[in-house]
């Protein structure tokens, strides 16, 4: 059953959208009474002429909320903590709202020329028009995505699909990226279980590289690069972690991160909005399975699981071009190379983008297969996993 969708406005004019799957969910009519003033305008994007990529400059974000105590969490329902939150309702299932401290915004404070630019060809900038949204997976502050029910995970997927379609239709938006940062090691500033959606006014560098590779592959073979990679991983089999009717999770052959998994649909689809109801149902189950395995990847000496910090992001087709050669996939990656050690992007990675991974991808896949539900979460004899002391 599709979630009920209700769009409202916060005190400063930002949109908030409730996605309710609970039959008993009340009408969403609560008003935001906070004296917020005017919403934050966008900053600017500046061209890095050395590599042809854009950098957002958003000085107002330096004042954003940073790891507040639980009773001041801005993502909990209003009335739960000591201060009114971003969500006026007393409870919610899944909620999406425009970020109060956005990197990209539909409102601009920048004056620009008739071509939409500021400056010359090499020192070029533009208003950072677009949209940044927050996706709250649940009203339960102590929960995490891996703890959701399949029904609630499906509601999040429907919210992602809804926002992909709506934001991708905006003329200023070139790329929609749905992602989640989990864990303070990743850099989260709010502990409440949530993700974000960035609607960029350009195609970011990794997305542009994927599109270029996919375009060249299609020109040579007439086939989709993503489909051929999935077929090759399925044939090799040794890096496949989960395989169902609609989805396959595998560790990529050239994984860059100490823990990295890709999740791809069996059918060729460009984005989340193109998934069928059956594919979304299966995705809810498979994604929860995958996240729960990741949370069993490392274990302490007492056998307890170590919550894995991760970034999970959906790579989708650009909004207005290259859709015929693009193929949807999720990338989940972690900086944790052992229970107490992080992978730092030092000289080679940060300086020239030359990646080195200390963990063979086949070892990552073997460990994730080993910790499947019902198999156990201990350290296996064939996989080198450091145990926390």
From TrEMBL:
Family statement drawn from the similarity comment of this UniProt entry: Belongs to the galactose-1-phosphate uridylyltransferase type 1 family.
Record-annotated Galactose-1-phosphate uridyl transferase N-terminal domain positions: 43-204
Cellular component terms per the entry's GO annotation: cytoplasm
Pathway membership: Carbohydrate metabolism; galactose metabolism
Galactose-1-phosphate uridyl transferase C-terminal domain sequence ranges: 218-372
Co-factor binding comment: Binds 1 zinc ion per subunit.
Originating species: Pedococcus badiiscoriae
Needed cofactors: Zn(2+)
EC number: 2.7.7.12
Keywords for this protein: Carbohydrate metabolism, Galactose metabolism, Metal-binding, Nucleotidyltransferase, Transferase, Zinc
Protein name in UniProt: Galactose-1-phosphate uridylyltransferase
Catalytic site: 194
Family matches, as SUPFAM superfamilies: HIT-like
UniProt-annotated binding residues for Zn(2+): 73, 76, 141, 192
GO BP term, example: galactose catabolic process via UDP-galactose, Leloir pathway
UniProt entry tagged with the keyword Transmembrane: no
Molecular function as annotated in GO: UDP-glucose:hexose-1-phosphate uridylyltransferase activity; zinc ion binding
Reactions mediated catalytically: alpha-D-galactose 1-phosphate + UDP-alpha-D-glucose = alpha-D-glucose 1-phosphate + UDP-alpha-D-galactose
Pfam families tied to this protein: GalP_UDP_tr_C, GalP_UDP_transf
The keyword Zinc belongs to this UniProt entry's keyword annotation: yes
